């Protein structure tokens, strides 16, 4: 008599190569990650605002720059009035998602997040511009490539 055991879990969905190298799974939903850089210039800062930014300048040094979901601000106000926000934005879309529009949408999300952060603190700014670059996905291993070829 065979001992009772749990049934084996179903295998994970096979990756299906999609347009632009993105992989989508059987559900038709794929996610891509973008590094969004938002650049701008502080404008008409009051003396207390400027003093506050200068006091926190060590936390926002360019050597501490990184792309995060919450965003990362870098500036050197003592040298010049420019700043850079760095965001990590994940775009999730279905099979019918326009892949060409995703970087534009990710850049717009980053720009609106940066503008909201600045407005929340009352910092004046101008010349906001954003760009988004796709984070390359790890290449498929040999087993995954074989499965993708088989369909």
UniProtKB/TrEMBL annotation:
Residues 1-23, 130-151 are annotated as: Disordered. Residues 1-16 have a biased composition (Pro residues). This is Uncharacterized protein. It comes from Pseudofrankia inefficax (strain DSM 45817 / CECT 9037 / DDB 130130 / EuI1c) (Frankia inefficax).
């Amino acid at each position: 008599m065979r001992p009772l055991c749990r049934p084996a879990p179903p295998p994970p969905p096979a990756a299906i190569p999609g347009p632009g190298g993105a992989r989508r799974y059987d559900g038709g939903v794929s996610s891509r990650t973008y590094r969004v850089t938002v650049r701008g210039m502080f404008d008409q800062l009051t003396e207390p605002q400027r003093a506050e930014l200068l006091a926190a300048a060590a936390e926002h040094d360019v050597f501490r720059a990184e792309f995060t979901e919450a965003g990362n601000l870098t500036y050197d106000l003592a040298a010049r009035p420019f700043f850079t926000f760095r965001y990590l934005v994940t775009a999730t879309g279905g099979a019918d998602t326009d892949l060409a529009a995703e970087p534009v949408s990710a850049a717009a999300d980053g720009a609106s997040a940066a503008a909201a952060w600045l407005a929340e603190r009352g910092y004046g700014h101008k010349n906001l511009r954003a760009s988004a670059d796709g984070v390359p996905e790890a290449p498929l291993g040999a087993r995954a490539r074989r499965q993708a070829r088989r369909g």
